[in-house]
Inverse folding.
């Protein structure tokens, strides 16, 4: 079964520390999404990429969050400095879309998530 | 306009009963409406989806009903089973533009045996 792999699965850190979460999308998928899940807000879109180019990062606090795709097999989400309000489960999801069929990317496969706790 | 409003927040149903979760949207450009199911400790997984050119789609015990004029859609789970206990998210996007899915806040369903 093809799957999206996220690391770490759990991270506990202290306020002010840098946190990096990594995602390996499904091979062949060209669209990668980062979502954040909290009890209060549900699933919030942070950013997404197509063919490694950022399409929308308007959901991210720009002063502390950054998202990149160094190559087609790796997406990263970095928080620096981290704050207690960043505590959440961060999900990466991938899909496949083309110029003629962008909707294919709407069929998302999610990773198991990275649970972040900032003390 | 980008919001998808989901209700109820939580739902308790007896085994064999019907579970109904509702969602509403404002953006009339949305043209793809999936439901995702999430079990504890796992990521959400696609359950069923509908496009606005049909009013209903059924897959096994799961049915989406879609009301375009009211800008509402709902998930019905017939003969609910304890194994259906999970969190359900509705979502919406603009397929032709390949925009990202916008999710509702989720409904936690508990099916009691």
């Amino acid at each position: 079964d093809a799957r999206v792999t996220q690391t770490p699965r759990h991270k506990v850190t202290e306020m002010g520390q840098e946190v990096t979460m990594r995602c390996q999308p499904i091979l062949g998928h060209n669209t990668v999404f980062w979502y954040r899940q909290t009890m209060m807000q549900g699933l919030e879109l942070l950013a997404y990429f197509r063919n490694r180019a950022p399409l929308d990062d308007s959901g991210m606090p720009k002063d502390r969050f950054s998202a990149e795709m160094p190559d087609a097999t790796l997406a990263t989400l970095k928080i620096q400095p981290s704050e207690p309000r960043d505590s959440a489960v961060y999900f990466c999801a991938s899909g496949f879309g083309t110029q003629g069929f962008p909707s294919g990317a709407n069929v998302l496969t999610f990773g198991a998530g990275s649970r972040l706790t900032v003390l | 306009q980008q919001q998808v409003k989901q209700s109820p927040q939580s739902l308790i149903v007896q085994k064999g009963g019907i579970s109904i979760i509702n969602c509403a949207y404002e953006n009339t450009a949305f043209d793809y409406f999936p439901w995702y199911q999430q079990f504890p400790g796992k990521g959400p997984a696609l359950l069923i989806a509908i496009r606005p050119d049909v009013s209903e789609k059924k897959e096994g015990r799961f049915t989406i009903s879609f009301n375009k004029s009211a800008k509402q859609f709902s998930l019905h789970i017939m003969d609910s089973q304890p194994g259906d206990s999970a969190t359900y998210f509705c979502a919406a996007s603009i397929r032709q533009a390949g925009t990202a899915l916008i999710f509702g806040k989720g409904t936690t369903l508990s099916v009691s045996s």
